[in-house]
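User: My collaborator sent over this chain with a note saying "see what the structure looks like." That's all I know about it. Can you take a look?
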Amino acid sequence: MAGFGNAFSSSIGKKLIMGITGLFLISFLVVHCFLNSLIFVNDGGLTFNAGAHFMATNWLIRAMEVVLFAGLLAHIIQGFRLVFQNQAARPVKYAVTNGSANSKWYSRSMGLLGTLLLIFLIVHISKFWVISRFTGIPTVDANGHDDMFVIMVETFKNPFIVALYVFSMFSLAYHLLHGFSSAFQTLGWNHKKYTPLIKALGVWYSIIISLIFASMPIAMYLGLIK
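Assistant: Without extra context I'll predict from the sequence alone. Here is the result:
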């Protein structure tokens, strides 16, 4: 057991945890993005509320929430541990550096991007998840479902919240640009034939997911979705 623990506390072990939890969170973002994009049906939130009701009442989904938060927490903790470990390994910076020669700026800024996303996540959870799971949603829609759509409408009337969401989606895009392909590489899923395809898929995934998420608060703030 000690050997198993040491394996995952080592630098390689930490990266493996980051890769595994990263792929899990990438999969979750697809589901979350699909559910939220139901607001674009533009039927007063009925379709979106029906989807949210299913997610909130399905026992399997509720069980997966525990797994999601465990994976998210592990990803955050290991991410910070890797950042601090890398800083400790190089306590004295080089007098002249040319980081762009070997990597993109966002690859070297995963700690910063992750911290910005953590701040956004705290705001997002307090605005929606805590309300839906604990404090309760005060109104129901025409179908008798909790009206989460109304909560979204009210939240995105605030231009500062909208700006925070949009800015955070830029951070998410750059975080995913590095994290998507890096997760596959960390797990050893490299092949000269498939790696370029994975990298290209990662670019499109990062852009599309982030744009969809960013477009939601903008559309609601501008009154395009009612």
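A starting point for your reply to your collaborator: Residues 1-5, 94-100 have pLDDT under 50 and may be disordered.
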